[in-house]
Structure prediction request, 259 residues.
Amino acid sequence: MGPARALPVRVLCRLLGIHDTSAAVLARLVTPIIAMIDHGRVPLADVRRARQALEDELESAFFSLDDCNGPLGAAILDGIAAGTLTRKEAADNTALLFVAGTATTTAAIAHAIHLVVTMNTESRREALDAVERPGFLREVLRLQPPVRYTPRFAARRVRLGEIALEPGAMVQVCIASANRDPRAYHRSHLWSLDRDLEPAPLTFGRGLHSCLGAFLAELEVIEVLRYARSTLERASLVDVPKLQPGWTLRVPAELIVST
Prediction:
C-alpha cells in the first residue's frame, strides 16, 4: 500500500508546484485528519495539531512561492491576486485536496489492483487491455467505491418514505449500497466489463455534488495499471486483505501480492 499512498500526494505536489521534499511531510500530516474523518480513535488534540501543522507547511511550501510552476497552484495564486479567492478559501480548499483527494485515490488504486490480481488469466488480460475504456474504472469503483458513506443535508422539507426531514437535517447516504442496487444493475454484486452503467454510479457524487477531482483520480488509477501491467499479469494475492478500521472510507489496510 506504500506506493498507493505516496502517489496521490506526489501528484498533488506537482500540480501545485510544491517541491517533492514536502510530499512525505504532507502525507504524514494528513494521516490523523483522515483517521478522524473515518471515525478512528484519534485524540482531537492530535488532529488540531496536525491541521495547524498542515496549514503551516502549505504556507511555507506553497503560498509563499514567488514563482509557481504548477498549473493548479498558479491558478490558485492567480485567484488570490485577482480577488476571486480569499486567502482562507484557498488555504481551506488546498488542505481539503490533500486530505480527501489523497485518501480516496489511494483506496481506488488499491481496489483496482485487488480486482485485477484476483481474476483468472483470461479475464485479467481482458481487463488490462480495457483500462482506458470509459466504463472500465467506473465499474471497478461502482463495485468498490472508496467512500462508503457521505453526509448530505436537506435543503428544504422533504419526505423519504415514512421519514419527514426538516431543512438542515443530515442524511448519511450509503454509496456502497446504492452502487449495488439490484434494481439498477443486473447481478450488481459482480464486476462486468460490458455493463451498461446507467444510471451512473454514485461513486463520485452527482450534479452539483460531483467530485471535482474525479477525473484526476481516475487518471492516476489508469496510469498505475498501465505502468504495472507486466507485474500485474503474473501477480497473485498472498492473503485476503483486511479493510482499514473505519466506516466512511473503504481502504485495504495492506495489499500483499507475489510475482
Remarks:
- Residues 87-117 form the longest helix (31 residues).
